[in-house]
Amino acid sequence: MKHSFRGLIALVSSLIAIAFLAGCDTNTRMSTFDTKGPIAEAQLDLFMVTIWVSLFIFVLVGSVYIVAMFKFRERKNDDRPLPVQSHGNPLIEIGLIGASILLLVIIAVPTLRAIWYTHDFPVTEESKLGAWYQGEGLSAAEEDKPLTIRVEGYQWWWGFAYPQLGITSANELIIPAGKAIRLELRSKDVIHSFWLPRIAGKVDLIPGRSNGMWIQAGDSIEDWQEKSGATGSDEELRAAYARYLQEEIHNYYYGQCAEYCGDSHARMLFRASVVSDDDFASWVSEIKTGHQAPDDMAWEDWYAANDESPEKLTGDINEGLQLFMSRGKCATCHAVNGNPRAVGVAGPNLTKVASRLSVAAGWLNHRAEDGSVDIEQQYANFFKWIKEPNTVKPGNLMWKANGGGIGELEELLTDDEIHKISLYLQTLK
Ligand code: CUA
Fold first, then answer.
1. Which atom of ligand 1 is nearest to the CA of 190?
2. Does residue 277's CB lie within 6 angstroms of at least one atom of ligand 1?
3. Is the CB of 255 under 6 A from ligand 1?
4. Closest to 413 in 3D by CA, of 314, 330, 327
5. What is the pLDDT of residues 300-345, one digit of tens each?
6. Which one-letter DSSP state was computed for residue 410?
7. Are 361 and 266 in contact (CB under 8 A)?
8. What is the pTM for the complete model shown?
9. In CA terms, which of 22, 27, 165, 345 is 20 to 30 Å from 419?
10. Does any ligand 1 atom lie closer than 6 A to the CB of residue 265?
11. DSSP reduced 3-state for 62
12. What share of the chain is helix, strand, coil (3-state, %, to 5)?
């Protein structure tokens, strides 16, 4: 009897353990335990302090409870008197209050320190734009300032504007490694929350106000040197630091809106690519330049041809662009840099959309194992997104009537038209 009871307990506890472990995943793309930056690290440290203090209380109270339960439980023919009652004993009462205060202070001090740390932007020479950004389009007034990115929340996608560099992107945040970056968080509709678990989070985006936070992917050179204990000449240190950034920090990170914001809140994802200074500068320059018209035509010529005799612009890509500009109504809401007539701002900016590794705010993924774009999957995702936006992301504006979207087209786009638009979009890389 006793045996089978133990067996039962073992079985039940293993089942519970398995159920808990099923939530674990060796894939740490969104793990707050695998940090890649000082903010996430500060938050993890704080979490661990809280865990240890809670565990201490749990074990202490639990053991007293168990001892009391066994030692003082009533036995058969028990004629022992009641044990001495300590209720109201001033020494114990004051002692317990004192212990609780002490434990709260142990948690409060690092909490306040972390709050100030994440709130105060570190003023470092390294992070000033003038110190590392070698690309074009930077006014002298901005050289002494850190990179600022305006994050805009929409139902259900993310706008990322870089006002100092004069560019706007969406859903994939591109940032240089090792630089402290200021984020300005705003919302165009309801409350959202920016959360990039391995690097930083979470701060709300609230309509009508601008919240701030700073993020940094990877350590600054000083912190890295302190942690790694690296020594050498200035040049050697810089090279080793660059290697550290490249090997451990340059990566593709997953983010998520962390505040319930309507039907498709769970599908409001974003991505972050952490890159080298040079790659960042060339990305900025490509976004600024935007795209040519198909067949390497100048936009003026393309529009002249299109306005005059559109049937002469042949091929899937030309037809895809024509549909993008006219029947598909895509350009009403989406901008494509370079194209003078595609300047919509209601939806994500589509410049270089084919270089992004996902579409529909991170929901449809086409990142291959090796980190490149899976072209076939990308086509399938574009097609699906345009064909049935309301299935992919219920309630979104591209579909909704009041968004002037696809659901309102007099006649829905045919599969062949969607095919051509998808092919055209795939040229935007
Ligand atoms: Cu945006 Cu949840």
1. 1
2. no
3. no
4. 327
5. 999 999 999 999 899 999 999 999 998 888 998 999 999 999 999 9
6. S
7. no
8. 0.86
9. 345
10. yes
11. helix
12. 45, 15, 35
